[in-house]
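Q: Can I see a sequence and its folded structure?
A: Here is a first one.
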Amino acid sequence: MITIRPARAEDIPQQKELWKRCFGDSDAYVDMFYQKYCIPEQVLIVEEDGELNSMATMLETTMHFPDGTSYPVGYVYALATNPYIQGKGHARQLLAYADEYLQKKGMKCLTLVPASPSLHRYFDNLGLKECFAARKVEKMSAELTGLPPLGEGCRLVPILPSEYNQIREEKLQGTMHIAYPDKLIQFQQFGSHLTAGDLYRLEVNGEVGCVAIEYVQRSRLLMKELLISPTNMEKAVQLISEELPAARYHIRTPVFWDGLQGSYIQAFGMIKWYDKELFQKWFNHQDAYLGLAFD
């Protein structure tokens, strides 16, 4: 018999095992998420004959529109299904339950980031639409050496999640984007710290920006979001390369800011609106920014 319900504290050990089996994250990362950033009732589970087979966490975020209005949004995180029972429709049933759950919570839409590009079509069949594209580019370290000196006043400084969030919202003001509570920015910082990365304040040519950094396999550096005006992006990347050495630099910026040569746009997140008026309002913009997906 299949049951779908909000989780209870006694379900957490099974959730952790399923999470690690599906995503390969460390014990430290998973344990910290459950200790500080999630309560049992935020996780929806599918169990069959007492065994937990599928799960997803409902995180609360906010969608800001360019006109200054904002609406509560449910972000579906860590959607996982036991590999040996995939194809039985558990994830489909779980997301249908999530629709009801989030609407009762007052959320105006559901958002998620597919774990792989191949899953975009699957979620499209469930009523989600492409949204939150990311602008990406990769730079080799050799491309960033021998450049003209940056000059005085260029700085890269680790900062607290609250300061990062403040800068983030200042840079994204007037755009359609997802805003996060400070505790989720803190969760990103914890993930960055596990890889010897961090959250940083950027100062370039008198402009203040921010960047969230993780190291991937030690030799590659991922800027999970780089927020600074297009005119200062190249200098910002140069500054980061001088302060944080790596063989390769992977950079994500908002789709509506084209500041780095060779950048391209790639599908990233998806959305399902529950409110018809807001769907139309979103449809007229669509260049929405998600940024941090805690991926």
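Q: Show me another, different protein.
A: A second, unrelated one:
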Amino acid sequence: MSIKPTEIKLHQASRVLEIAFDDGSRFELPCEYLRVYSPSAEVQGHGPGQEKLQVGKEAVNIVDIQPVGNYAVQLYFDDEHSSGIYSWDVLYRLGSQYETLWQDYLRRLEAAGHVRQAVH
């Protein structure tokens, strides 16, 4: 894809990363969502079927965002996770498929017997 972000804004109080793209799309992605779908090997594994379900990430927040070349950002989370490189394509996919991916995550948590904690 040749799509690029025009704005990336972190709302730490609400734990949301807002990102706008040059095609006019704008997404508000919760930090928990970005953390549990991190493109890192720690989360995704090293091949299909090796994904590791992330639990207990309801209150996670992003503490820093660093550019990686002209193609990605590295997100630093307050749970010490920082190994995922979020390319523009990954961020766009996470934004455009948010509802489907979020519901899939909630189903996997439920299947694993994990109950999400309310966060204020």
